[in-house]
Specification:
This protein is an alpha+beta fold and 118 residues long. It contains 3 helices and 5 strands. The chain is globular. The protein starts with 7 loop residues before the first helix and ends in a 10-residue tail after the last strand. The site of adenosine monophosphate has 11 residues, from loops.
Amino acid sequence: MSYDSTNIFAKILRGEIPCGKVYEDQHALAFHDIAPAAPLHVLVIPKGAYSSFADFMARATPVEVHGFFAAVAKVAAQENGTADFRLISNNGEGAGQTVHHFHVHVLAGRPMGGLLGE
Ligand code: AMP
């Protein structure tokens, strides 16, 4: 899917709508999910215009890829210490992706059993 810069996370990156920011660096922005599925539910998004994980891995530079995933690790440590957590990235609508700017969900704070929670 080609990147559509009217998506809601692009608007957050441009400062057009607010977010509950928890972390930002040159590669990534992290903020609270508006509909949390766990006591800790933070979204981490790259600063670049990538529609999905697959698009990010196909087009981002190695510096961007490393910078982004380093930011995910920093967010998890900052928000959750050394406790257990789950990372999710839905790649495509069939996998549940609703916002087409690549993002990783960081979830923690409650027991998580089955992989899909069903
Ligand atoms: P996904 O379904 O994997 O694309 O995840 C999109 C996530 O974005 C969902 O968990 C939504 O609750 C969340 N979301 C949608 N709009 C906002 C917003 N304005 N601020 C924060 N999170 C949002």
